[in-house]
Input
Amino acid sequence: GDGDADGARGRDLTSVLVTTLAWAVRSDPPFPGSDPSDRRADLAIEVMRIMFALRAVGAAATPDEELMTQIGILLCDILHLPNADFRCYDCKLAAVNLIMDAPAEYGQYLLVNNGIKPLLDVLNAQLSTVVIERRGGGSSDAAAMVPILAVLTRFSASNNQILRIVKEHIFPPDAEEGFQSKAQEERAKLGVGAAGGIGAKNMAPLDAPRGTTRWALTRLMTWPETNVKRCAAELLWAVCGGDATEFVLRTGFGNAVHMLGIRGVVDLPASG
Output
């Protein structure tokens, strides 16, 4: 029927796009090229934008396994491009948008092929742009932050090894001793009578020095843009293993309260 024909067309279109993307990234001279007239990076970004748009409007058929594998390998290759060239970095951001839609198992492929560190590098670069340089505002902040936060949250929630890597990136092991001793003091203040299952009530994060990744993420938890705020909190909730006490200790009750309300851990006052 018509549906079958549409599906076949969608697959053909996706196949052409994947072939074009592969050519753009893998042809010689090495991508992205030094000649100003070399437009392969622009082409790669446009192809990924089209692929993203087709998925968003439901016009792309779900690719078969072979095509999915090709897309997965290509996106991982793109994540490994050097950050120093802005054209490569823009390609990475376009790739992250596509990875938002990837099956959760794709995280394992990225893990095996060293694709998690490049995602964390993107996180840091985007945090620097949005939180430290304050170059955006509103919708541009959301466009800059939401995809990378969503991708890391999704893969962390579905893969314990990725969860550990992401957690150690945000909360470095060499800072843990200091954090844990402060956490112990905080817990002791409440004793056994922990209110509503939360064993801490520190208003500010116990250990989030200015300029660190954890500091920047806690800043985003009270960001004016709703999606940014929610996605930052979701990532931190995931790396805290959904433990409300750890979440409060690491992010501060003032930052955490909205997420704790969404999770049903505290009662939020009714708005309006």
Q: What stands out?
A: The chain has a mean pLDDT of 89. The radius of gyration is 21 Å.
